[in-house]
Structures are given as structure tokens and as C-alpha cells.
Amino acid sequence: MNEARLDAFGARDCPDVPARFALPWRRLRPPRRTTGRERRRLDPERGLFTRMERVLDRFTARYVLPHLLGVWHPYCWLLPRRFSLAVATVTPPLWPYDLSDLRVLLLSDIHTGAFLHPEVLGPILDEVMGLEPDLVAVTGDIVEGRIEDLDGFLPVLAVLGGAPLGAWYCFGNHDYFTGDTDRMRDLLSSISIQTLCNESRELRVDRGAFVLGGIDDRTLGTPDWERIAAAHGPPHLLLAHNPDDFYEAERRGVALVLSGHTHGGQIRLPAGRPIVRQSQFCLDEGLYVHGSAMLAVTRGLGAVGLPWRAGANPEAVLLRIRSGPRGR
Asked: Which of 54, 142, 268, 299 has a Cα at 20 to 30 A from 79?
């Protein structure tokens, strides 16, 4: 068997990944327990350097990259060669008791626009949707910086709306670069991807129900934790672009948080830490546990700043969520 298909612990099969799956896959490492006291020396969301970087990032995404990369697309070469699917089974303590297993496909940071072509992204999305997830979660930054970045991508992204429990979206910081998140919401709705911005929905499954929520981006949006819990209580499953929302979610009784934003560092030295560190709390990629809450952070599909990744290859995550004996 192709060594690329072996998971991190050497297992050679997985019930969620059939033999016909054409892309490399691996199993995520077990969740890491955090203390909540892990901190980076520099807060990636504050300070003069961060503000300057944000202005430059917005300007580059809107006015430079669309012209510079008109004839040069190295990421279109890299994505189909470096992409892999990460697979894990999790049992959040606060997950509703006695629900059937829920299979969630987690995507993030697609960054449609200058770095990508629809014909490169399309086959990857078709293949992962062939795994028949129950629900698709897209945790922000679907564009690089302009509404026009979605041009040509809507037919490709439409496959995500075929999940039985729907495809759901929350805003990321690059979505706010567009200046028109209402238009983005409408465009995504037209292909059956529903946006949750400080909102929640109760989703019925065969033996019960769970609450799905989406919190606004903590950097450029306006998170409203009271509003998201007003209708149905704390979400069991929360979409949050930035993983640094994890500890606030844990305090509010959320069972499982799905995030992106970090790109896993995007550029990492072999066996090293991320060079670009987007999480103040060191929540860079993979699975985490704190208190009774769990977090899954994906590296995401796209690239930002540079049309390249090294040491933190693009991925999607397929989670099987199981009920435990102490759910609520």
C-alpha cells in the first residue's frame, strides 16, 4: 500500500476512508490537553506591527496579487501534489447523549482568487465529498480579499451544499477585506452554503438533535457570545475562524470548536514550529482538549501572502463525532 496512505500510528485502514479514495490521507494525532496558560510572547492580534501588517495584507490582497499572479500560479501546481485528508474520531464530553455518529468535513482558508484556479480546486472537493460527510463546515477566509475572488468558483464550491445536514460558513478576517460580507453571504447562499454570524441552528438527526453555531471573526468582526446562545443555548458544534476563541467557548459550555486561520504556520522548518504564528495561545493545528471542550484546527486549503506552503501542507479534516456516556 502507498506509504502516503498510512496514518500517523501505522494503521492501514479506516472506516471513513474507503480504498477507492484517490487522495493521500493520514490520521490526526490524539488531542493535546492544554492548560489555558500557553501564550506567545507577541500577541498576533495587537500592536503596531500587527496593525501595519493588516493594512499591508489587505492592500496586497485587493490590489497587488490579482495583477501579479495573472500569469504565474505556483500554488496551482502545489495544491494537488501536497494536499492530504486528515481523519479523526472524537468523543466530546458535552456532546448530546445517544446521537448517531456524525461525520463532519472541515474546510477552511480556501483563499479563492489570485493563487487558485477553479479547475484545480474542483477535483479535490469532488473527491472529499465522495466520502459522503453528513455536514460540511467551512471556517472562514473563502476569499483572498475581494468579492470578485469568487468569480468562477461558485460552481466548484456548490458540491459542498450536497451534504445531508448542509454546508455552513462563518466569516474570517479576509472575508472582511472585501468590505461586503452581506454580498458574500448572498453568493454563498445561492449555492446552498449557509452563513452563521453570531447565530445558531438546531439540526435534527435520526435520534435527536444538536446545536450548530458560528461566531463572527474575532479580529475584524464583532463576536457576540450572548446572541449566539440566545435561541438554543450554547452550541454543541461551533464554527470559529480563529482558534483563539476556544477558551471563551469552553467557558460558555461549547462541546466542540472547529477552526482554521493559522494555516499550520504555512511555512515551517522540518520538525519545527510555525514561522508565522497566528494563534496567541499556540493552537496551531490538530486536536486540543481543555476542560470539557474540544478543538479541531485545520491547516486549511489555500495560501496567503506567498503562493506556497512548506512543512504545513494543505489539508481538509474529516471528523467522526461520537456520543459518550456523559453528553448533555
From this structure: 54
Query: Per-residue pLDDT tens for 192-208?
Result: 999 999 999 999 998 89
pLDDT at 91 over 90: yes
Q: Which of the 8 DSSP states describes residue 31?
A: P
Domain ranges for the chain:
45-321
Q: Are 245 and 215 in contact (CB under 8 A)?
A: yes
Q: Which amino acid is at 277?
A: R
pLDDT in tens, 215-252: 999 999 999 999 999 999 999 999 999 999 999 999 99
**Residue 328 has what pLDDT?**
54
CATH architecture of 45-321: 4-Layer Sandwich (3.60)
b/e map 194-216, b = 16+ CB within 10 Å: bbbbbbbbebebeeeebbbbbbb
Q: Taking residues 296-304, what's their average pLDDT? A: 96
Gap between the Cα atoms of 205 and 44, Å rounded: 39
Q: What is the 3-state secondary structure (H, E, C) of 293-315?
A: EEEEECCCCCCCCCCCCEECCCE
Q: How confident is the model at residue 9 (pLDDT cuts 50, 70, 90)?
A: very low
Asked if residues 202 and 178 have their Cβ atoms less than 8 Å apart, the reply is no
Cell of residue 84, nine digits: 492530504
Q: Distance (Å, rounded) from C-alpha 251 to C-alpha 163?
A: 30
Name 214's Cβ contacts closer than 8 Å, sequence gap at least 6: 168, 169, 170, 195, 196, 197, 198, 199, 200, 228, 238, 239, 240
**SS3 per residue for 207-270:** CEEEEEEECCCCCCCCCCHHHHHHCCCCCCEEECCCHHHHHHHHHCCCCEEEECCCHHHCEECC
The DSSP secondary structure of 109-158, one letter per residue, reads: ---BSTT--HHHHHHHHHHHHTT--SEEEE-S--BSS-GGGGTTTHHHHG
Give Dmax (Cα) for the chain.
56
pLDDT tens string 102-138? 999 999 999 998 889 999 999 999 999 999 999 999 9
